[in-house]
# Entry
Amino acid sequence: MEKEFFSPNKKAIFILIFIILTVPFYESKRAVIWETQRPKQQNEIFSSIILAYAEKSEEIKEKFGLKDFFEKEHLFWLKIKKSPLIFGEKIISEKEEKTPEKKMIEEKKIEESEIKIEKIESPYRILILGDSFIAVYGGVGDPLERELLNYKDVEVFRLGRVSSGLSRPDYFNWNLTAKELISQYKPNVAIVMLGSNDAQALTTSEGKVVVNFVKFGKEEWIKEYQNRVLELLKIFKENDIFVFWIGFPIMRDSKYSEKINILNKIYQAEVLNHKNAKFISTWELLADEKGNYTAYLLDEKGKQKLVRVSDGIHLTFFGGKILVKEVVENMTKVMQLELKEKK
Amino acid sequence: MLFPTLDFFAFFTLVLILNWSLKKWSFIWRLFLLLASYFFYSVWDLRFLLILILVSLFNFLSALSIYKDFFGKKKNFFIISLIYNLSLLGIFKYYDFFRVSAESLLERFGFSAHFPLLEIILPIGLSFYIFKVISYNIDVYLGKIMPTSSFLDFSIYVSFFPHLLSGPIMRAGDFLIQLKDGGAKKIENLAENFALILMGLFKKLVISSYLTISITDDVFAVPENHSPLIILLAIFAYTLVIYFDFSGYSDMAIGFAGLLGFKSPINFDSPYLVTNLRDFWRRWHITLSDWIRDYVYIPLGGGQKGKLRKYFNLMVAMILTGLWHGAAGHFIFWGFWQGLGLTLNHAFLDLKKSSQFLRNSWQKAISSFLAGFLTFNFISFGWIFFRSENLQTSFSLIKSLFNFHKIFEPFKIYILFLIIFGFFVFLLERKIIKFLINFQQKLPFFLLLLLFPILIILIFKFSPDILPSFIYFKF
# Structure
């Protein structure tokens, strides 16, 4: 039999090696995003190799002046992907906004009781924004939307983006998106639940890492994060939109829970300084009597029901309903929600 | 490690190189395959690996005991193994469902009972590999196959990584033989395997992902907020999503196994191009429906014990298929829906045998078109129950589907294009794969070397930033 010069085995191996070398090189920016999005795995040998390779290839691109080419190419794909003809998303202006300068905006602290909240006039156009908790998978967004539809003069628009937050505007820019959505839907009420992925290094909207903002919980980090929350709140304020900011419930992993607690406090403090906004704490809602994490809670019939899914972070349908009840209760304080008559 | 990620490609390249270079030493090669599979699985969670090893060990021993007929108690060993496997599945998959149902049942009779509350994580792929080992035990019990005397081989069968997470559910007889004497000597159908991997990537990363994030996720979450037209589109979109998602995964699994020199059974065979539901179930998730046919439907008596018994058996088989996907009312209802359809289908065929009323060819053409149309819509309607979070949502979706007060809703026209595009890809799938194969055979090697990365980069470029996870990973 004739011996082939390249046996199929060698061919396959060559092709795969070539794919491994070229695809991460080409897609290095995205490879880094893919990696940081994913929850930490125990075994990260391959991920770290790929990541190191991707970072190296970014350097190589810069060295050989290929950066321009890749950026142009990136824009090209973005245009195709987001053109209304093909995938319908509006192109969010590529003139990316600079991350706000690092300065604390001093506002007079006001006690909660002092805030005079004006009643919001109906009809209500409600915008729900957030990360995985609001997206289909996390357990709050869809029961909330369904509940609100039971009321008169209410229209609801919801956008949840998995893995998004305020830490990585290079991945998903909520400020730009919020502006876009406001101009599109003209809401007068917004419900925000954002930040479960934010306990990480902050980057600027161009994806640059600033040394001071790397370590979560450090003073600079907190200041910068406060600025970002404030920036988002300002967008709503400028458009006369009342904001309900939903805090996060207690989490199973104690370290993660600690981080979420810090974030909750930041949101609460910023919202308190803000007229026409309300922070809804959910921390205790899903905790047991001792204030610890629990996966089960009693329903109204006195039965133990699962409230958290197996990751110890997101909520089951029943868990979501508990939060929704609290949110709606808070909303009725400033809004006149009347149930629709049943046909 | 998911298939469409760079770390999987890196892992796989390494495995591929070692796989072909270690073949000379059969034992080391097999040991390597096992360790690679265990590594692959432990990346998800180390604790899952322990369960996998325990299941392998238990079933290896039980099958040997059944075969050797220890103490003349073959049947007892068989029953023990069945109970062990089913209760593992029960604990991990159905515990909370049973707890709630049992508590409310007891309450109805005036007892108040509380079962322990457990936070159980379903080990990924459990339903698939438990079904593998059950079939192995049954086949050994019935004398269809001889159990392997090598624990190593059996462990590879249970944990073979391309098939581990979402099938295809391969039978031991077909797999173990491929481990003999160092297995395949070279990759056969290299071009086909590459074509399958590319096609699978495209189906999952591009079509299924965009349809999921642009329409199905939103509509199925809050159907009340949408108009009948959009809901109808979402139902058809999901019909495509579930096909592309799962068949895309299966294609990749078959392709990767093929590159390692293993032949796998096909899992999908253009399932929507059918004129009746029986045909659909012969072409949809073939390895699961074959499993249910061989180990549930036929042991129940199949179609041999009279018509009514046949309909009953069909119903049981389909409801079990539904239950396999998860312990929830909506999956069971989906199984019931399919069982109902199959029963009607069989009943109609039973009637038709006596009277052939269609004569000429155009009558036949029209009738097969109508039958195809009806079947497709029946299947699509069934997916409503499959996809919904719970039965309540399914019913409110159906209610909203007929809520003609809200006819108009602005929607992005590209969704329509995307669905039409999806249908075209579905219709032309075979041709595209054939074209890819021919193309590879004509091109010189160095061009292939360039072409593949470009195609993969293109697929990645067109995929959304966040990939929805594979639907069948939940099961």
Observations:
- The domain at 122-331 of chain A is CATH 3.40.50.1110 (Rossmann fold).
- DSSP finds nine helices and seven strands in chain A.
